[in-house]
Each structure stands twice: as C-alpha cells, then as structure tokens.
Amino acid sequence: MHCGCTAQARKGAKQQMSVSPEKFLDGLNAAELKPLVSSKWVVPCSNRRIAPRERLLSRMTAERRRCCFVLQSPAGYGKTTSLAAWCRALVPFGYDVAWFSLDASDNDPGVWLDYLLTSVGRVNPAISREAMLMQGFGNNQDGLERAVIALVRGIVQHRRELVIAFDDAHHLTDPRILEALQWLLDYAPANLHLAFASRGPIPLSMDRLRAQDQTLELSHADLRLSPEEAESFLKTQLGEVDAASARRLNDLTDGWVSGLQLFSLSLKKKRRATTSGAIDLAIQEHVRDAGTFAVYFEREVLSKLAPAELDLLTRAAACDRFCASLCAALFVRDVPERGGMVNRLARLEGDNLFITPLNQSGQETWYRLHPLLRQTLLERFESWSDGTRREVHACARQWFLEHGYLGEAVHHALKAGEPALAAALIEQCAQTLFLGGQMRTLAALVRQLPQAQVQSSLNLRIWMARQQLFHMEPDACAAGLDALDADLPPQRAAERFTVLVLRGALAIQRDDANLAMSLLPKLLDPPPSADAVTLAGRNNVLSWIYMQRGEFQAARDIQDDHAHPRDAEAAPLIGTGAGVLMGRCFVGLSHALEGQMIQAERTYRAVLREAERHGRAANQSACVAAVLLGEVLYEQNQTEAARELLERRADVFERVAVADVVLRGMLVLSGARWVAGHRLDSFAWLERLEDHGTATGLSRLVGISLAAQVFRRLSNNEYDVASGCLARLQALVAATPERDARSFDGLRYAARAAAIRHQMATGDLEQAALQLDALIDYCEAHGRQGHVAPLRLQRAVVDMKLGRAAQARTNMVTALSMGHRMGLLRSLLDADAGALDLIAEFARQAPFDSVLAFYIERLQAAAPRVADELASRGRTKPRPADGMRALSERELDVMKLLAEALSTKKIARALGLSPETVKWHLTNIYGKLGVSGRDEAVERMRDLAAH
To answer: pTM for the complete prediction?
Structure first.
C-alpha cells in the first residue's frame, strides 16, 4: 500500500463510479483489508503542548488498585488526555492496558463487543480467545452475558493487572451494552480495572463498589485546571503571562481547558501581545462553555484561517480520523501533494488548533479533531451541496479502500450514495472475514446496508446463511436457504452447491443423520466452479456422514492433505468450521469412535497446538480439539486433567460445537466429577446436557443423558429413580423416528445399554445376556469397537453370575485384548463395579499372558483412585477461616438452594437470575470456601453450621 494520493482520487468520484462496482473492485486484494479501525484501540499519543496534570495524575496513580474509575465532565476538560496519560503512567507498575475509543457507530452490541475483545486481545490473545467464540450468538442478553463471563475468566487466567479504558463512553446508550458493562463491573476479578471518560453520567449501578471504596469518580471540579496549572498551560501557549491575568482567565473559564486553549489561539491569531490588557480584552468575550464555543470559534479562529486551511479542516471533519495522504486525497481538484499536507497538518497541530495526534502507523501520523471543533466544522460541511459532500465521501472511500481499511471504506461508500459499491465491497471481502473468524464483523458490515441491497445480492445472502449457521441460528438459516433455493437460477451451479453444503452442515447441527445422508449423492458431485470454502465444508460434512455409517477410513480419506481445498495462494484453509483443522478434528473423532484412543490423542494434540498458533481464525477448532482431547484424557483415567481442560470451556463448546462434541464434553465432565466422588456435580452436568438437548431439540443428547443418569442412579442404589429415568428414555425412543439403517443410532444404543444395566442390577440376567449379544452384534456391524470392549466385559460378568465360567473367561479375554489394543481404561472401569474382582479371580485360577497381565495391572492401579478421592476429600484443600462470612447475601441465597440439591436452572428460576449468573456465583462460592464443586460446598456449609 502506498502513502501518496492516488490517481483515481484525483480524477474525482464521478469518474471513479463511471464503471460497474465489479469492474471498479477488480484486482482488489481482500486479504489486505482490515475491517476494524486500529486507532480505536491505541492509547492516544502524548500531546506535549498540553501542560501535564501532575496533581490529577498522581491521585489516579495512587488509587490504581480500585476497580472502577470515572472521569465525567463536559467536552473540553481534558478527559481523554488525562486518561491516556494515566494509562501510560501505569505501565511501569506492571499494568496492561486495553484502550477503546468509542464513537456513535460503536453503539451496537456486536460492534462494541468486537472492538472490546480485539482491544483486550492485543494485550494477550489468550484473554479473549474463548469470548471471541461466544460473541457471535445473537445480540440477545444470554449470548452477551456468556461472552462477558468468558472474557472475565480469561482475565482471571491472565494474572497481571489489566485496565480496560473506555474513552467517550457517553456514546454507549444501547441497554444491551450497558447491561454487559454492568456485568463486567459485577463480575470483575481483583486484577481487572475499568475506566470511563464520559461527558455525562455513566448509567451503571456502582453503589456496591462505592460501599467497598472501589471507585474513583472525578467530575469537572476535579478535572478543571488549578490556577498554577492554568498559568503553566498559558505560558506554554503564549510565553510569559503574569499570574494575576492567568488566574482571572482561569476563573472565567472555570478551569475549562478548551476555553483557555481557545483564548490562547485567538490571541495568537490576532497577534495581540500577551499583556494584562490584551487578556482582559479576551476575558470580555465570556467564552466559558460549549454553548458559546462554536460562535466564538467561527468568528475568532475559523474566519481568520486561510481559505485552503479552512477547506482542509472542513473536509477532514467528514472523517472520524485523518492523516496527510488522506487529506490530500479528499480534494477532487487542485490536489495538494502529500509532503505539503504533512507540513500543513504539523503547523496546524503546532498552532494548537484543536488537532490531536492519535498514533503513528508506518509513515503516517493519524489525527482527530477536538469534538467541539469537529461539531462546528460538520455544520459547515453540511451546508455544502449534496454533490460536493458525496464527492468528499467518495474520495475518502477510495483512499480507505486502497489503504486496506474496509470498515471505513464501506461507511464512506454509503455516505457517498454508493450502496451497490458498498455491497460489492463487503461481498468481495466476505470470505477473508469468514476465514479470519470475524463472522460478527461481517454481519455488522452487512447490517449497514439498505435491506433491499442485501436482498438483491445472492452471494451476500449466502454469507449471511453461513453466519447464521456458525452462530447456531438454525431456524433463520433454514429459512434463508429455502429462500435462496427459490431465487437462485439453475445456471448458478456453484451457488446452488454451496446451499446444498450448508443444508448438510445444518443437518449435522440439528443431528439429523437421515437428512444428511439423503444429500450424500449430490455432495459427491461438486461443480467445477465450486469455491474452496464450499469444498472444504463439503469435505467435513462428508466426514461426519461417513462416521455415522461406520465408514471411518472413508471419513479420514476425504481429509487427505492432497485432496483438501486450498485458497488462492495454494495454502490450506485453516479457520472456521470449514477449515482443515476442523477436518482433522473429525479425523481424530473417527479414531475415537472406533475406540482407537491413542491415535485420536495424537491428532487432537497436534490440532490444538496449531489452532492456538493461528489465533482468532482457528478459535473454534481449538475449542473442539480441546473437548475431544478431554475425552481421551478421561479415557486414560486422567480425570482431573480432563476436568480442568473442559470445565472453563463448557459455556463455549456448548455454543460453538456440533452435538457430538457437546455430548462428549458434558459426559466427560460428569464422569470426572463422579470419579472424584462429587455426586451432585456429576448429576448437574447430566442435567445440563439434558437441558441443552431439550432446548436445541436434539433428542439423542437428551436420551444419552437419561441413560447416564440410569447408570449413576443404579450405582447409588436408587432403583426407583433409575427406573423412572429408564421409562422416560424409552418413551423418548418411541417418539423419535429411527435413523437410516446404515447409520449408528446413538439414541437407541443408549436406551438398550441402559436397559441392560437395569436388568443386571435387578437380577434379570438371562434377558441381559440376550440383549448384550444383540447389542454387541449391532456395534460390530457399525464399527463401534470402542463400545464392544465394555459390552464384552459386561457379558463376562453376566456369564459368571449364570455359572458359565468358561464363556465368561472367553468374553473377559476378548474385552481385555480389545481394551489394551485400543488404549481403553475408563470404559472398562465404568462398565461394571464387579468387573475388576472377576478379573482378579480369573487371574488366580489361571494367569493371563504377560501383555494382558500388564494391562490388568494398569486397570487395577487406576481403580483405587475413586476410593482415594473420596477418602481425601476435605483434607487436601485449604478451608478459609472466615467460611460463610466471606459470602455475599446473594451467594448465601444460592448456597441455601444448592443445599437442597436444586439444579442450576432451578436455582436461577427461584432467584430470578439467569443460569449464567448462578454459575458465576457458584464459581465465586467455591473459591471463597476453598472447595472444587457442589458436593464439597454443601459439605462445607454443613460443617460450618454444626460449629
């Protein structure tokens, strides 16, 4: 990208638009376009011509450990300058700073969250990695709250002190954003500090923080200049000024920095001497607030500027920020050279003409106008003809486009009356945004367009369907795909194939194997014109279909490196659910479904390592790989490691992953808690899985949760409750259509496995034996060898109880051989409580070969961990001395309901809270009580009550 003004900008907007948008954008490198305004998250440069506010800065620095800082005053009191100086002063103290300069366009939840997470991610990408995945799930409060909680958890993990500074926070009026900010305040960990600069009151509840002395709120009385500061400031502007005159001027302006600055500028423009009389004459003007600023500025400053300088500033006011080459490009005729423009801007800044440097970017220095000056100049700009204003915006659009600033290019294209060009620009950049994981940004750009313009672009509608699919909006996505099917002409083969692939992906999201498999023949025959993203997505859909059919090698073959689609630069597509990393997750899952846990682990670890290296673009793949790796860790009996890996990601994978991943993650968390002896927590995860399945209409997830509840209740000797769960499961099976016979029916498998467990527990052994044989045959036919091994072990237990010792040993050896070969531990340990005793009995009767003997030793070494965990509970974790006194009133309310064994959802309903807020309270409770879950919290509460 070059820095000089362009030939196209010189020719004028009318000539630029004499060709079609497609021709105009020909050759555009979409990969180089940046959708976000980078200067919004950069702390503004220090303005050396503004006197330092040492008194204010010292006070804020001394109070730096407080949670919330508010600088509130009318425009012109130096809020931004003071806040930026404080942020820079915190760096030597080991603080990290995330800066966010707000404007009116940020008063949208999606845009606001995108900028916030990007700003925090510049400090450390790991802080906002999971929140970025959560941010896209609609503008509803549930999605926003989940994103905020994920961000807070990332901040906790960051350890270092972090300040998030919101400049010009008065632009935020959307109730959804304000509630999200309230959550940030309410959930803020000790290492998070929020700072706001605003012209008006911050509409947030801070009474609790005030009561805890955790706020520092500064008004215009604190921000106004002291007499000494005013004198120092005037001396930097005018040279020598006597103290009495400086004091009178400061009294008149009430310490208003902009008023003093304007008086200084006026005196310099009039070339008045800085005598007491000259200052007294200026005082008679009575400029003391924003209401009189514009009139005075127009008369005393703007009218005295050279016409070229006034024209320049008026054009610059049309842009939120500007630099020398942009200013040069804003002139359609008589274009000044960039070098001359650099000198002119430097002179205007040197004259202190309310021009503030923002940051340096390459060879350019970015500036912005003081809000009061910009408001005055915009009124002048609006008085120009409609055609002239459009020409200026068209020139700005072209400059921002050629220099890679997508968001600003779209904004100015719309201001220039070029909605077709804006739509074409978004359409051309959509794939880059998609592959970069910026689906929310894509949606925000599309929302700027007139609805008629969006509807007229079939490609934009396809991208919006992709966005709805990614953000788990299945009904909206289905409706959009139906409309596209109706509107796409037959000759648009590539687009029609894309819609077909999206239907396949939607079927996977809805866990509809029958629909997905019905699309298989068409998916196998893509048109030559299909794009790389569509082909990559199609490969992932095919992998899922093949896994349902038990064709695991085919599922892996479709992800072969040589067959995987590549981008225009011949590089593999990395990001999003269509990318190669997600495809490799499916490769690992195909191994896991076969029971080949060792191969699965290697694949998941490699994907996780590479996904984290690619950052935001591969966040979804990183999350999915982590969940699937957690399943392997659980299988290897590393239950605590699995819990630590998955528990903090639960809110994320519940929202971004397909049903199989959500299912595995929650089953692992339930199992890990069960192994650790935390029964309430184990059932809580199963209930959450059931709730998720019910809310999303995924009956397989509901059924598998009920089946796991049957197992757990039988283990607790709760036979009546187990029978009730089994009855509900069987009713669900009866109401759910069967899957295609070629695919594995996970719901019916779970129901049959649960019935067998119930039969074994209640002594119906002959029936259990028959059902086990049938279920083993079913699993072998569908390639689910990972299920076969524990079923064979159960069959051995049943045989032994029926007195068939020889058959029992045969099944036992088969189960152990399979388990050793596939790397299974927990599957066999969880198969039956008496299995290890039976193994030991057979070993005493006739030793196993050395390989199986070694495997048996591993199983026996893993088994005592359950008893050890139960025995050591309460001894290994410190218990704070203050106990229940450390809990807030709301946390006590949560604890009382928790002691009644209520689920998170029921606690939320009882207290009128969201489930996410209850989960956050539970996290805080566990930390304050020094426990790791519900069971220990209830036990701790009872201990304290007894004393």
So the answer is: 0.79
